[in-house]
Structures are given as structure tokens and as C-alpha cells.
Amino acid sequence: MEVPISSRSRPSPLLPLHDLAVRPMPDGVRGALVQRVSTRHDGPLDVTWLAAGTPGLPLGRIRLRWEPASLSGWNVTVYLGLTTAEVVLGTWPAAPDDWPHLVRPILYEVTGLCAALAFATDALDLSKRLAGV
């Protein structure tokens, strides 16, 4: 089972993060937009590239950024889109090549939390409409 990430327009193609994580991000990208997080601990993490000129993240979306660390490994940062800004969810300096396994728990938890908050917001909006407020 996988946790889908909702989006108004899903970029394509989906790219497996584990295959990309051991190479620098391409020129002209701002990061990788998380599209799918599997519920399995060894399941897929799929992303799409986010172009450098793309405006801020939509509410509830997650962006990954990584670059080679000075001595070894990768400097990894995870961002979350809020209504008016992006916030840093976590950083992993000099993470090993299997860094997607390190960040996977936070990606899974945050996508679940955002889905629950979106559901609760929709339910509250519906309740208000039905009550005529």
C-alpha cells in the first residue's frame, strides 16, 4: 500500500529516489518533489524534478535537496510547503549513499499528517456549509 501525494498537476515522469540519490542533482533543478511514499520500509520513494524557476512549494508538498558533502556522503535537506513559506523539516549532513532510508520515516510521517489535516479541513468546510455558516 502506498500513500498518494495529491497535486493539482502531477509532473512526470516519476523517478525512483533510490536510483537518483547517489548522483548530484542535475543543473537547473531546485530539488526533487516527493510524489509517492510507500508504506513498506523498503518500498519505493518516487519523486519528480522541480525546475529551478518554480515558485514556492504548494501547501503540504515536500521537496528534497542533496549535494555532495565536502569529505564524503551527501548533505540532504527536506523542506515542507506551508501557506506562505517553505520550512526545513530536517537536515542530514554527510549522510551515506543510502540516505533515502534515513529520510524515509520523516517523509512517510509528514505525508500522512498532511493527508489527515487536508481531510479534517475538508470535513470542517463541509460541516460549515451544511450548517449555513
Which features would summarize this protein structure in a list?
single chain, 133 residues, alpha+beta, seven-stranded antiparallel β-sheet, 2 helices
Describe the 3D structure:
- Strand 6 and strand 7 (86-95) form a beta hairpin.
- Strands 1, 2, 3, 4, 5, 6 and 7 form a 7-stranded antiparallel beta sheet that branches.
- The longest helix has 33 residues, at 99-131.
- The chain has helices at 17-20, 99-131; strands at residues 2-4, 15-16, 29-38, 45-51, 62-68, 74-81, 86-95.
- The chain is α+β, with helices and mostly antiparallel strands.
- It has 2 helices and 7 strands; from the N terminus they run ββαβββββα.
- The protein is elongated, with a radius of gyration of 16 Å.
Output the radius of gyration: 16 Å
Structural class: alpha+beta
Number of helices: 2
Shape assignment: elongated
The percentage helix is 25-40%
What is the averaged pLDDT score? 87
N-to-C span? 38 Å
Low-confidence segments, given as residue ranges, are 1-11
Number of strands: 7
**What fraction strand?**
35-45%
Order of helices and strands: EEHEEEEEH
Query: How would you characterize the largest beta sheet?
Result: 7 strands, antiparallel
